[in-house]
């Protein structure tokens, strides 16, 4: 079982399927009932525990074959996390190991390390990439169906269920799924996966681009911009010119921001209450300020080096800063080292660059697995 591609393939689809069903039910009840109904968290907790337990056993059996850099990274982050957990347990009277494992810091760490462990031995089990390629085709089919709902049920029919931010007054459509980060990541990965200079006008590319643009998230435009500049454009002169133009447009935001926010009542209110920075960073700048303002008097050199300045689920949603407050400067350096080594080819770093300004890939188990599967699939060719 611990070295069976069929077992892990089935387990992954149970996790993905349950996550999708859970999101659809939660979103449907959010839109059409007074309170959203959320399927028991314990179910996904049990599924993830099975995934984590089996991944640990398989990684142990295959430890001599797994990429040593993955094992080194997982070991270092695990040690830093366990030391911080012990420190926190000794200092805080209200500490709960159960809460940390189910919704807190250890839960966040588990969603990083176990998907990476899985990807480390999955490439050994599925060495011909047959199941990997088939899984990506199924993921593509699911998100194409969701794209059809976005185009026809969202853009054309304006059905509230298709909205990215239901009942908020904020524009955007992401179909039946409620997890906007993973949804946007999936369309971005599919765009990278399907793009070819020989078939630049392939119809699927247009579908994925539209889904990024109508998501209602500025990160969607950043995704597309990075894709065009660093994947589509081959000329370094043209690339530099576009980068300079984008920098100029950003620098002159104060002169046209009122015109832009005037197109949306939601962003107009945000601008009135929180100013330009609130609009540009979707209030993440205030999250940044609140975290460091509340903790700066009590922050020790140990926390700066090894983390513990703040704990999940408190977060800033700027990936490097979140990694810093959780794992410290030392942990952040190891993350940068590992991700620089792991991401190949370089175009797959786009979701991580986007995460530096809008949320994060790390900390979402499915997002890490999806990213790894797409990279592994490309290695076969």
Question: Descriptors for this entry?
Answer:
single chain, 381 residues, mainly alpha
What do you see in this structure?
By secondary structure, the chain is mainly alpha-helical. Helices cover 71% and strands 0% of the residues. It has 17 helices and no strands. The chain has helices at 5-32, 41-61, 68-91, 97-102, 105-125, 130-156, 180-194, 203-213, 218-232, 236-251, 253-261, 265-280, 284-295, 301-306, 319-342, 350-355, 365-379.
Please render the helix and strand layout as text.
Blueprint: H1 5-32, H2 41-61, H3 68-91, H4 97-102, H5 105-125, H6 130-156, H7 180-194, H8 203-213, H9 218-232, H10 236-251, H11 253-261, H12 265-280, H13 284-295, H14 301-306, H15 319-342, H16 350-355, H17 365-379
Helix pairs in contact: 1-2, 2-5, 3-5, 3-15, 5-17, 6-8, 7-8, 7-17, 8-9, 11-12
Helix content: over 70%
The span between the termini is 28 Å
* Overall 3D form: globular
Q: Whole-number radius of gyration? A: 21 Å
In total, how many beta strands? 0
Class based on secondary structure composition and strand pairing: mainly alpha
Mean pLDDT: 88
